[in-house]
Amino acid sequence: MAAVAAIGYGIVYLVKHKYHRGLVMNGALIFAGAMGNIIDSTFYGILFQKDALGKSLGLFHGRVVDMFYFPLVSGNFPTWFPVWGGEDFVFFRPVFNLADASISVGVILILIFQNHYFKQEKPEEAEPHSEMVED
User: Which terminal Cβ of the chain has fewer Cβ within 10 Å, N or C?
Assistant: First the structure.
């Protein structure tokens, strides 16, 4: 929870100091994913899980609920196929969590575009025929 508070403060800082909009949006993706994970783990036990007597399990007994599974194509490998011949095949087998995907996409985009987000501005040096000449 402290990390989410720090990320939230960091986003406010980035906005106030007019950092690149892409950096702010990627930070917001990371913040939203982290908040989603906290909400899942905190409130799932109250809302969805019941014990044998029908009472809710309470705070912090949560599970992640925003999972997605998209098996687009399924079938069997042909028997002549090396290594996996005759075994079941499912294209796009991973089960993924929307909050974790949000965090991953935000971090990956920051890493990819870091030179664009954090470029150093070089001060223009004054030349005799430049507009920047000071008297």
Answer: C
In angstroms, the Cα distances linking 15 to 9, 10, 130, 132 are 10, 9, 33, 29
Closest C-alpha to 71, from 96, 101, 91: 91
Beta bridge partners of 97: 67
Torsion sign, CA atoms 49, 50, 56, 60: negative
Model confidence, pTM: 0.66
Question: Is residue 100 flagged as an active site residue?
Answer: yes
Both structure tokens of 20: 């690149």
88 annotated active-site: no
Q: Determine which one of 51, 88, 100, 135 is catalytic.
A: 100
Tokens at 10, concatenated: 């960091």
Amino acid at 129: H
Mean pLDDT of the chain: 82
Q: Rounded to whole angstroms, how far apart are CA atoms 58 and 125?
A: 64
- Find the DSSP H helices in the chain: 2-16, 21-47, 98-112, 114-117
Q: What is the C-alpha end-to-end distance of the chain, expressed in Å? A: 55
